[in-house]
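Handout, section B. The chain below has 278 residues.
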Amino acid sequence: MSLRWLGVSFAFTLALAAQPAAANQDVACPEGQAIRAIGDKTAVCVPVPPPVDLAPLNAAINAEAVARMAADQELRDSIVEPGISGQYAFTGSGTCLSSSTGFAANLLPTIVFPPPPLPGQPPATGTILTVASNTVSGVRTFIPGATGTAGTGTAVATFHTVTYPSTFIPFTGNFRSGGATISTLEGTFSYVVDGDTLIIDDNALIGVITKGGIFVGAQVSSIGVPQFVGKISKDRKTIAVTQADVVVEQNVLTPVGQPQQITDRVCHRERTLRKIHD
């Protein structure tokens, strides 16, 4: 190989070795600026905005979180121990089946067939079955106790009752044609609120027949009436209740100047209450 070619190869090698040093030349921007682009050994610089103060935003977020927690707690408190109080107007209906000889454990009437009458004596009465339906309107006043979820109250009501013709077993030729009466009742009750559930225990409600039939002025009451159980609306202004059970109860009729008459019956009743006054 000639010295001429050897010199050319050596010069090319020196040129390649010098390139990395040129490529690694430092480029920078003044303080407060940042590199946006680099070209031909120069840097394109742009200003850097000052840091944002996030303290006011974080304070607002924390304040909203605290307010939400307080509102949630207030809502929970109103749900955990909600009571009812004040006056509720109510309407409803009911149906009762009465039996002069009582009912069996399965709520069917106990049917009595009397023996044949002796000569010259009137036939003995067997079982008399009577069905009556009624509508009622009145006002319940709820008075909370110490916890707010249990208390006592007073009730006043007017009943419109229609009694259907009676069934006699065995039929002896007698009959009761039925009829209608109006009676007013008042009394006291106790109650318990469990969440959105209301339970009412009526004490002996005493009433007077004011119109219809042959017993105007007679005192009426009921013994052994089941509890009313139902649901309270979210705003606590409407309550729908019905009797939780069907049991044998007693209707007590005390005519003026006459002996008391007690008759077994089974009934079903429902009521809708709407708040009218605190």
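Note. The domain at 84-277 is CATH 2.40.128 (Lipocalin). Compare this with the example in section A.
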